[in-house]
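FORM 7B: Structural annotation worksheet

SECTION A. Query
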Amino acid sequence: MTNVSEDYLNQLANDPLGPVALHLKQKLLPVEGEGGVIFPPTYADIGYNIDTLSDGTKVATIDSVGSQANRLEPLFKTPPYSGLIPQIEVDYGSGKVSILEVGHRLGDALVRSSTLQKEAQDAFKELLASGNAQKLAKLAPTSLVFGVWDSRDTQAKLPRLVQSVIRAWGVEVLTRSAQYNPPIDYSALEVFSEEDKAKQEGDPKSPLAKRGFVHVPSGSALGGIVCRNGIEQNITINLVALRRLQAGNDEETKTLRCYLLGLSLVVATAPMDGFLRQGCLLVPVPDSDAKWQIVGRDGKRSTIVMAHDFATDYAVAKAAEFIVGESRLGDKAVKFSKDLAKTDAASGDKKASAGAKAGKGGKGKKPGAGDGASEDVAEEA
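SECTION B. Predicted structure
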């Protein structure tokens, strides 16, 4: 087992022949204990995302890669982590929103519709032209940590440095039923007639049922799952992707990589907030043998000690060396621009129209093909 040091982490960030990844496989449990019922996310048209393997094993997605990234990123809004990155808010008139909370990060429509638009565009263009990620890291380093695709503008695309996903194995799907009973008989009070009551009672789509005035049964709805073979969270820090990032010169490149490794380690080792959604509160299995492992180029694995406090200290030191970009909060918040938003929305209509014409002619990309399919978006929870 290796006790890591600052020099060791610096080497991981910059050695071109070094290990390919850091990985943690952690077993989780519902707070109700083994065999407890949990609720996965539901998706439009399919309900729970459950795959059946060739041997019949059923595997459920409990939290996807994109959803995990969206949960982890806001960690950097809170002390002591907030000083590690620039804090930028967009002022849209009736309120402000942090760019740490927008689903497509620096490639989001909200950024393109603000006074941050040109800076973001310039950072993406520099990345495309020379591979230099320095501007991007000064502006929005979490777009490098969690990945970004500027699919609606420059087409710049960066893979995630940190990837986390939670899956359940050997699942069985449950159903649930319910019955709503109104507290009084509204028809007896002549709010509506007995005839209306008889017609609409029991129909959840009827106007009176929707307003809660009559009895409404609900049956065979999704009722969660039971996991027979456990729940696992897999966290990976991609060291190969980290080492591909460049800055202005060799020294700046090394500093950039160490800074981003520090951010990655902080978020990857942070204590888990296991409240994923109603009916799904997870905790690590106590006294489990979950350990961080370093994965070599030959596939060999060795265990390392990676404490969150040490990761945080390393990140603080590397942030100071890198010199964190400027924050824009309060009166300095970037401004939302209705005109920029209208222009961007109109350009989308033009592209859709052009794509439709190309499709009719049998040439060009099919409408919608490749439009941000791998970007992080909100799931229904």
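SECTION C. Observations
The two ends are 39 Å apart (CA to CA). Residues 178 and 218 are 5 Å apart (CA to CA).

SECTION D. Sign-off
Analyst initials: ____
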